[in-house]
Amino acid sequence: xxxxxxxxxxxxxxxxxxxxxxxxxxxxxxxxxxxxxxxxxxxxxxxxxxxxxxxxxxxxxxxxxxxxxxxxxxxxxxxxxxxxxxxxxxxxxxxxxxxxxxxxxxxxxxxxxxxxxxxxxxxxxxxxxxxxxxxxxxxxxxxxxxxxxxxxxxxxxxxxxxxxxxxxxxxxxxxxxxxxxxxxxxxxxxxxxxxxxxxxxxxxxxxxxxxxxxxxxxxxxxxxxxxxxxxxxxxxxxxxxxxxxxxxxxxxxxxxxxxxxxxxxxxxxxxxxxxxxxxxxxxxxxxxxxxxxxxxxxxxxxxxxx
Length: 306
Ligand SMILES: NC(=O)c1ccc[n+]([C@@H]2O[C@H](COP(=O)([O-])OP(=O)(O)OC[C@H]3O[C@@H](n4cnc5c(N)ncnc54)[C@H](OP(=O)(O)O)[C@@H]3O)[C@@H](O)[C@H]2O)c1
What we know:
Blueprint: H1 8-11, E1 23-26, H2 32-43, E2 47-52, H3 55-67, E3 72-76, H4 82-95, E4 99-104, H5 122-138, E5 142-151, H6 174-198, E6 204-209, H7 217-220, H8 226-233, H9 242-254, E7 265-267, E8 270-272, H10 276-279, H11 281-295
NADP nicotinamide-adenine-dinucleotide phosphate binds next to helix 2 and helix 7.
C-alpha cells in the first residue's frame, strides 16, 4: 500500500469511517497534500471547507468533492494578512455550527523572507502565526471530540527558534526560515494539546511529518539539487506520494484509534519522538504567549483562565 496510488483513506485504514454530519476545514487545500486530504475527507462524508489563495484551484477541489455527493465550499485567505485569517474564521463560523476537524496545513518554503506588516519574517508568519491565529479564533467553534491536525515537517529537527529574532534576519536562508517555522508548528501543536487538556475541552491536537514528496510544489521549491534528486528518488518504490503524505493527515483526522491521542508527532501514521526542543514546556509557553503578543490578541486558553 505504501508508495501505491491507493487513496489516503485506504492507506490510513479509515476507508470504513463515516464522517457524515462532520465538518472539516483543510487549510492549503488548493493543491498538494491539503488537496488530497480534503478530497479524502469529502469521500468519507465530511462537509469540507477548502482554503487557499487560488480561487480557480479551490473551486475545482470543491467541484470534485461535491461530485462525490458531499458539501464543500472554498474560502480564500492570504496567510500573510491577519485580517484575511479573521475573515476565514468568520466564514467558517457562518457556514458551520461546529467544526470537527481543523487541518492546519497551508504553508511552504518561500523565496522571500522579508518582513510582513506585523514586522515578522514572512515564512514564520505564514507557516506558524496564521495557523495559531486561525486556531485561536476557531476555538469556540471546535466541537467536543474535535481534532486539530498540524502539518509540520522533519525539517523541525534542523532548527533553533529564538523568540527575540522573529523579524527577517539578514542572511537567513529560505530553508533556515522554513525549518524554524516547522519547529514552531510542532511546538504549537504540543502546547495547544497541553492547554486543551488543562481546559478539559475534549479536543485533540497532533502534528505530523508528511514525508518528502518528490515532485510536489513544495519539493520543487527546495534549494538545488534537492528537486532534481527528488525527481530521481520519485522513480523509486520507497518515495512518498502525495497520497502517502495526506494519509497521515487523514489518519489523525479520522482514525478511531487516535481519537483520544493528543500532543503527539506522527510520520507514516506512527507516533514518533520529535526533537526535544519541540516539546519543551517552557519553550512552548513562550511561543504561545509571544505569538499572541505579535498578533495583538488576547492569549487563547490562557493558563490563568483554566
Ligand atoms: N511536500 C513535501 O514534501 C512536504 C514535506 C514536509 C512538509 N510539508 C508541508 O506540507 C504542507 C503542504 O505542502 P504541499 O507540499 O502540499 O505544498 P503545496 O502543494 O505548495 O500546497 C501549499 C498550500 O498552501 C497554500 N498556501 C501557500 N501560501 C499561502 C498563503 N500565503 N496564504 C494562504 N495559503 C497559502 C497554497 O494555496 P494557494 O496556492 O492557493 O495560495 C496551497 O494550497 C506545508 O505546510 C509544507 O510545509 C510538505
